[in-house]
Every structure is written in C-alpha cells, then in structure tokens.
Amino acid sequence: MKILRIAGAYLAAAATTYVAAAAFYTQQIIAKQAAIGMVYTAGQQAETYLANFTGLWLYGLMLAVGLLIGFAVAAAVKRLLKPLAPIAYPAAGAAAVLTVIILIEAQLGGGAGVIGGARDAVGLALQALAGALGGLVFALAKGRGTL
C-alpha cells in the first residue's frame, strides 16, 4: 500500500511539473513575441499551449526522470538535515528541473537556449517553480511517514 501511494504521488508530481512547465514555457514564448508586436487571441494562445504540451513530451520524460532522482536524493537528505525536511521535495523538484535544463543545454550546444521558455532569468525561474510545484504535490500526496 505504501509503495502505491508513493508511486501515485510521484506520477501526480511529474504530471504537475510537466503541465506547469509547458504552461510557463508557452507563456514565456508568447510574451516575448508580444514584445515585438505579435498579437495572439485567446484561442491562439490555447492552441499554442496544446501544441507545446503535446510537442514537449520528450522534455516531460526527462523531467520525470530528473524528479525521480531528485526525490530519491531528497528522501535521504531530509533525514540528515531535519530542519530542511519540510522543503526537501519542493527544493529537489526545482533542482531537478534546473539540472535537466542545464544537461540539455550542455548536450545540445547551448547558445541561445534550447528550452525557449527558459532563455532568460524569469523563464528559468518559472521552470524551477514548475519543479517546486511538483515537489510540493509529491510531499502532500505521499503523506507523512512515507519515504
């Protein structure tokens, strides 16, 4: 039963992170284009989000792997650093997302930024926030006393 709750919490966290990351990515791209005069209707914004949501599936898979590793490390670290236990999973989620972005950039050459929604400090912070939200969902969904 415990393992099912942890697995469900992980899946909820990965889904939350991906949905938020895709939304933040889309809004960052739309905001940058609006800054140069492009205008999107609400329907076009929704269509763009849906296209990004389905098109970023590989990024989502990488985020899920990063979260799995991050949450495993957080489970161990929070036992050693008890005062940090309440923020262990949100911090691990944020760190996992940033690590995934850094690794993608390193492998694909970086430059202008492979992850378009994370090309500036605000975009990068929003991607980290997506991971932190996933970590919060994981912490709440798994419940106390597990992992």
TrEMBL record:
Residues 1-21 form the signal peptide. The chain crosses the membrane at residues 56-77, 84-104, 124-141. It comes from the Bacteria. Keywords: Membrane, Signal, Transmembrane, Transmembrane helix. The keyword Membrane applies. This is Uncharacterized protein.
